[in-house]
Write a structure and sequence with these properties.
By secondary structure, the chain is α+β, with helices and mostly antiparallel strands. The protein contains 9 helices and 26 strands. The relative contact order is 0.12.
Length: about 425
């Protein structure tokens, strides 16, 4: 790539030389920080769209903003956002949560966990978002942040950190245009890779559905199960209502100190401590239902989405969940986990759930016990589980390689932005 004709020392070791006409100045010389804040005297009925910390990651805004009346909004909802602003998280700064806001309604309000940057006259709005994404500036933010578990930096400290920038609007325009184009190319690459991951996961789900319900022998004689969505299964498999395989368990925790378990349609039954999300924690879990390894746990409210699974842990779950224990060892836990969450069975749960609309459907024990369950011989269950594990390893390996490609291209994106905004590459003649 082309370089600028003349450079000068920057006096900063990590930065090295910068183009002679570039400046290395505090961020506050290029932007105004937190220009406008909601007053406490705002009408309680004022309706706002709230940009929370969870709405922004290193790639920009993700997810929908939540609407509130001012009287119901979080106390952190105070920073007013205008079109052209850039927001940067001042808490957990290592996450690099930055988003440029090219357009927005006049009621967009950001959390006080953000600094809202408004470009000074003579600075392109999008250019601001690029200069603060450079590795050097992000490293400075991280270094100056205080705190171990929740590192943060004040807006004043942020404004005092130095950035490399050019005052030339023509040059800013060239930089923004070049990086926009490159980012679009990279975004297209990443989108195609994520689509491929989705297809691989669909292939996995379809494979599991097929062999869990039909077995491994395509030539086996078949019979009808009597279950609307399950259809035919090998003739030698057992078919009974769930009440003949399971008993409902209602053992309660006296202390609430057992391991807290989560029940999800994505991960099944897992320890809450493994969830990488902020989740509400109650003051006490006394009276929660106890489950042991091998129990089938069903999230009564979300069974229609497949939120259930076989627990591998002794722990506690919500008192409103269903905990079912095998009457005899008819099922391998691994096979049962796949069977219970198969799409055909989820369709059965939906039909048997009660409620006036989908989001309020509930699968109660009496309805679950009427579900016709299929039960292959244990030897076939083992073979099915082994085949699923082998196919999953293959698919997981492919997904890991794709995710590494995404990681590498994003590393390239970060490096390219740094090289361009700090003047290591001259892009003025590339547009």
């Amino acid at each position: 790539m082309k370089r600028y004709p003349a450079y000068k020392p920057s006096s900063v070791q990590w930065l090295g030389e910068i183009p002679r006409h570039f400046e290395f100045l505090p961020l506050k010389r290029f932007v105004k920080i937190n220009m406008a804040t909601l007053s406490e005297t705002v009408s309680p009925g004022y309706e706002l769209q709230y940009l929370d910390i969870g709405n922004v990651d290193s790639s920009g805004i993700s997810g929908e903003l939540q609407g509130f009346k001012f009287s119901d909004a979080p106390s952190r909802a105070r920073r007013i956002i205008k079109p052209g602003d850039t927001v940067i998280s001042t808490v957990r700064t290592y996450l690099k949560a930055i988003a440029h806001i090219p357009e927005c309604e006049d009621n967009w309000i950001a959390s006080t966990g953000f600094a809202v940057l408004t470009p000074e006259a003579g600075t392109l709005p999008k250019y601001v978002s690029y200069i603060i994404r450079s590795d050097g500036f992000i490293d400075s933010v991280t270094k100056e942040s205080k705190g171990v578990n929740y590192p943060a930096i004040t807006s004043v400290e942020l404004g005092n950190l130095k950035v490399v920038a050019t005052r030339s609007l023509e040059e800013q325009t060239a930089i923004v245009s070049y990086l926009d184009r490159k980012n679009a190319e990279i975004d297209g690459f990443v989108a195609s890779k994520r689509k491929l991951i989705a297809l691989l996961n669909e292939e996995r789900a379809a494979f599991i559905q097929k062999i869990v319900l039909r077995g491994l022998n395509p030539d086996a004689p078949m019979k009808q199960t009597g279950a609307m969505f399950v259809g035919e299964v090998p003739a030698h498999w057992e078919v009974k209502r769930a009440k003949y395989f399971f008993s409902e368990i209602d053992e309660r925790s006296e202390s609430g100190d057992e391991e807290l378990l989560s029940v999800s349609h994505i991960t099944g039954v897992t320890p809450r401590s493994e969830k990488n999300v902020n989740m509400f924690l109650a003051e006490s879990y006394e009276g929660s239902k106890v489950c042991i390894p091998g129990d089938l746990v069903i999230n009564t409210m979300w069974a229609w989405m497949g939120a259930m699974g076989v627990s591998r842990h002794r722990g506690i779950v919500s008192p409103s969940y269903g905990v079912y224990r095998q009457r005899s060892s008819s099922f391998l836990p691994e096979y049962l986990d796949h069977l219970a969450r198969a799409k055909s069975y989820i369709a059965e749960y939906i039909c048997r759930s009660t409620g006036i609309q989908e989001s309020r459907l509930r699968l109660y024990p009496d309805q679950f016990f009427n579900v016709r369950m299929i039960c292959p011989p244990l030897s076939e269950q083992r073979a099915i589980v082994t085949e699923i594990e082998e196919q999953s390893q293959r698919i997981d390996g492919a997904i890991s390689r794709i995710e590494r490609e995404i990681e590498l291209i994003n590393e390239y994106r970060t490096a390219l932005i740094s090289e361009v905004v700090t003047g290591k590459i001259d892009v003025r003649e590339t547009n």
